[in-house]
Each structure stands twice: as C-alpha cells, then as structure tokens.
Design a protein that fits this description.
Structural class: alpha/beta
Number of strands: 16
CATH superfamily of the largest domain: Ribonuclease Z/Hydroxyacylglutathione hydrolase-like
Protein name: MBL fold metallo-hydrolase
CATH class of the largest domain: Alpha Beta
Radius of gyration: 20 Å
Strand content: 15-25%
Largest sheet: 7 strands, mixed
Shape: globular
GO molecular function, one term: hydrolase activity
Order of helices and strands: EEEEEEHEHEHHHEEEEEHEHHHEE
Pfam families: Lactamase_B (PF00753)
CATH architecture of the largest domain: 4-Layer Sandwich
Number of helices: 9
Oligomer: single chain
Strand order of the largest sheet: 3-4-5-6-7-8-9
C-alpha cells in the first residue's frame, strides 16, 4: 500500500499534508486542511473553487472552533471570507465533512448539497427514524458480545442539532453541475456511506474524492447507523465506476494530493481482494463469526493484532470484517447462518 498518512508530504505544499494554510492544487482550486480532534486522522482537506459568483467548497469540515478558525484563516489568505461562499458540495454526511457546512450554510445563506442516500442518517440524527439498530446490537450480531457491551457503556454524546440540518438540495444519481464556471460530474459512490459522492472535473483533470479514494488508507466499510446489505460490494462497484472515468489528479479528504486516481483505485481494489482471500482462508478453520475472523487478520499497515486495537477501532474492524464476509457470501464463496447469538459464516464446499 502507499506511504503512511502520519508522514505523508503533499506536493502542493511541500509540507506534511495536514500543515495549515491555503495550498493551490490547480488553477482556481485551493486546499485548506482543517484540524480534527482525534489521534488517527489529523485533518480533513477542504477544497475551495473560485468562480465569478463566489466560492464553492467541496466539504465543510467539523463544526468545532479550531476547524472554523482554520477555514476562516485559509480563506483570508486567498482574499476571501465566509460571506463569499455560495455553496458546499458535501461528499458525505460524516461530521468532519458535513457539520461545519451545515452551520455556515445557515449563517451565511450558502447552499448545501448532499447525497440523498444520507437522508436516513440525518433523519436518525434528528430523531425521526424508527427501527434504528444501535452499534452495540450490530456488534453483537457480528459475534462481538463483549465489545458490544463496551460500546453500550460508552454512548456518543447527544448531537447538537444545529450542526445536522437538512441540506438545501439532495443529489440523486449521477448529475452534472455547473459550479464556479466548471462542469462538475457529481458521481454517486456508495460504500463508505450510502450517500457518498465524488466530484469529477474532467476538463480540469481533478477528482474531488472525499473518503471514497484515499491515497494512504482505505475508508471504513460497513459502519453506518443505518446498515445496508452489502456495503463492501457497493464500495468496490463504486471504485470500478470511478476507474471508468479518465485518470485524474486525486484530491482526497484525508492525506496528500496524488497524481493518479486510476493507480490508487487499482491499489484499493487489490487490497480488498487480498482481504477477501484472507477472510476466506480463516473460514476454512470452521464456521465462524466476524469477530473470530477479525482476530485472524492483521490491522493497519503495521499488521497489529486485533487485541491491540482500542474499543473504537476494534468495532470498526469487526464491522469491516463482516462486510468482507457478506461479500464472500454474495459471491457464492461462503454460506451465512443467522443464529440467536450472531450470524455465522462458513466456506462453500469445493
């Protein structure tokens, strides 16, 4: 896989990719990294597109004071302010992408565009969705009962609903947008989340990839508040869809800019095929839950044992493993059986 996110230098700045500033990545396009309050991902990249009617931003950042201050400072370096923002093109609903866009959109009258596949998550966040399955129940269903108890004992804080307003416009399917004097192809790429979008400026040879195509890591799969049947199958199909676009400069949400979207998509597809093979090999030891298979796998580029992960990342690992097992079942390579305790998988007899 690619270089470590922790040490990656971005060619547009010549500094670590999370270094504060406003870095020009293409004509009329600038990258502003905003800090994140977490140990793993240090920043989220916000992309500013200059247009005759004002600014369009791809993603908005997390609605925290540090993020808002960094965005304001970056815009000031470019000669702009929040009042110049006309629209936010949000790649997906996660808080480090959506919440500051929601807040600033309300304050300054900017439009906020979001994929329609994120509507159930926003309805859930605002307390309007029945039948939600909690994370601890999902983990228990994957065989991780002790881990589920830890998650149940550490519930997330109640959301600030002013950060989670509905967008101005829902995007459905693949659409072409006239943004900042550019023809942007808004391409629906479900997988990381069901409403994820990337934005391709083919004429400008850049791909605003959100979390769908990251240059140094692969995004979490199968970890959504509203679960779907085959998230990894969706993700890999979406990667193939992006691979069918021209080869573009990769502008990711996390990590340095990269020269080839095709090269990174090929790496990601190969990585997940390898994980599928490893998961199938684990199943050959017997009928197993996602937790048991996750314990057989190495995690991160450091190949950490599952037992070395903290409870949050262990939860991500279990749900991602379950996504791989569900895809093996969808491909006819594994069987699945729902028991009272959890869902179990086994290899199809050869």
């Amino acid at each position: 896989m690619s270089q470590s996110t922790a040490t990656a230098i971005s060619p547009d700045s010549g500094e670590h990719w999370s270094a504060p500033g406003a870095w020009t990545v293409a004509e009329g396009v600038h990258r502003i990294p905003l800090p994140l309050p977490m140990d793993g991902l240090k920043a989220v990249n916000i992309y500013v597109l200059e247009g005759s009617d004002g600014l369009s931003l791809v993603d908005g950042g997390w609605a925290i004071t540090e993020g808002r201050t960094a965005l304001e400072s970056g815009l000031k370096k470019l000669g702009f302010g929040f009042g110049d923002i006309r629209r936010f093109l949000v790649t997906h609903v996660h808080r480090d992408h959506y919440t500051l866009a929601s807040v600033l959109g309300e304050e300054f009258g900017a439009d906020v565009l979001l994929g329609a596949g994120e509507r159930p998550t926003l309805e859930l966040t605002n307390g309007d969705l029945d039948g939600w399955i909690s994370t601890d129940r999902l983990l228990a269903y994957a065989g991780a009962h002790e881990l589920a108890a830890v998650w149940a004992a550490n519930p997330p804080p109640l959301p600030d609903l002013s950060h989670w307003r509905m967008p101005s416009r829902w995007l459905e399917g693949d659409v072409r947008l006239d943004v900042a004097g550019r023809d942007l192809d808004a391409v629906h790429t479900p997988g990381h989340t069901q409403g994820h979008y990337v934005y391709a400026d083919v004429a400008g040879s850049v791909l605003f990839a959100g979390d769908h195509v990251l240059p140094t890591i692969t995004p979490s799969i199968g970890f959504e508040p509203v679960p779907v049947v085959d998230p990894l199958g969706d993700f890999m199909a979406s990667l193939t869809k992006v691979r069918s676009l021209p080869d573009l400069q990769l502008l990711p949400a996390h990590g340095p800019v990269a020269t080839s979207s095709h090269a990174r998509v090929d790496e990601l597809l190969a990585h997940h095929e390898s994980r599928l093979a490893q998961s199938l090999a684990s199943l050959r030891l017997g009928r197993r839950s996602a937790l048991e298979v996750a314990n057989d796998l190495g995690w991160t580029r450091h190949e950490w044992a599952f037992a070395e992960l903290d409870y949050f990342n262990a939860g991500l690992a279990v749900m991602e493993t379950k996504a791989h097992l569900e895809l093996l079942a969808a491909r006819g390579l594994a069987t699945r059986e729902e028991t009272e305790a959890s869902v179990l998988f086994a290899p199809v007899s050869e």
